[in-house]
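Self-study notes.
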Amino acid sequence: MESLELKAFYKGKKVLVTGHTGFKGSWLCSILLEYGAVVCGIGLQPNTEPALFNLLDLDDRVQSNIMDIRDLEKIKAVFDQFQPEIVIHLAAQPLVLDSYSNPVYTFDVNVIGTVNILECVRLNHCVRSFINVTTDKVYENREQENYGYAETDRLNGFDPYSNSKSCSELVT
């Protein structure tokens, strides 16, 4: 889609972004706002200084809900109040090395967090589109240079992070 088509598509649409306070989530929210979307976010407090979320003044520009995606009741309340048309799920424990030191937390956030978001999507008929953003780490690593992964490739996450994101895809 061309930029003008995207602007026309998103203008006035209610978009909920999980992980909105993270690096990618902050950029996504900023772009969606430029396209005229009404943006609501669910995420943790930004954990860097400076945080892109703060540099972009997103706290004043989106309906920001600081919460954990493992808290189903709080998420349900956000969905009930905001009534999103589009949900883009970015929230995750995103670090491979951290997944080794804290695998339970990694699976809890990446799998149960996704289940919670999907449950809210299932219960709210206002949602017309759901996007689950994961990682290329879910695919079997063929150790081939210049090889782009495809959605038809075999899943094969062997470390806790990659495996939890594979589970997130399967749950979706």
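Second protein, same conventions, sequence then structure:
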Amino acid sequence: LHGLGETGNELAGIHAWGDRYGAVRAYERLRKPPIQKLHPKYPWLSDEVLEKLNADLEERPFGGLVLVCPVTPNPHKLGPAAKVLDRYADFLEKTLLPAVREKVPCLSGPAHTGLDGCSLGGYVAVEVFLRKPELFGTLGGVQAAFNVPAAQRYAERIAKAVKAVGRRQIHIETSSEDPFRKANEAWAKALAKRGVDHELAVFPGPHNQPWLREIGTLNMLHWHERRLAKR
């Protein structure tokens, strides 16, 4: 799910991940290692992270994913937000995912279905997951846009959802200059306190699209593929 900047234009929303956030390029980099830095003058992708990532891909090649990147609503603009999120979650469950599975040969079921989002999309992803936890085996947020009190509430609600539907894995990714860093770190800490399986990654860098294209999107795709791929 994409961020706020593309919510006003459906065409921009559809292409946000593939173009602006670098998902197509990141996918190609993962499929054809060794991965190289796109922006060597910035410290966003460290040598240590790069070495670890390439070693992992050498040991087990990237198996691939079916990426579905729908237009993401701005619930607060279309409001009431809760009703917008209810309808959007129903759309993903009853319209989008069935259409994808009809057209594309892919694995189904929660063990092979993940949900992630960037910034506003991270917030929407969490809200959708809490409405449909039975649909997704993994949940993530890349610089997810919410505050510390919301992070605490989300952790509590996710823990209750996981208790009801079974083990789920949570991916939290932020950066040193992300305005939502404290909230994302608080979310990880609160999940840990409740025993929810999760992983926090904090990379150097800002909250912008070049950072996504260098490491944010790359790490997100790699993380989900390792947990959703057929064993």
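Instructor comment on the second fold: The first helix runs from residue 10 to 20.
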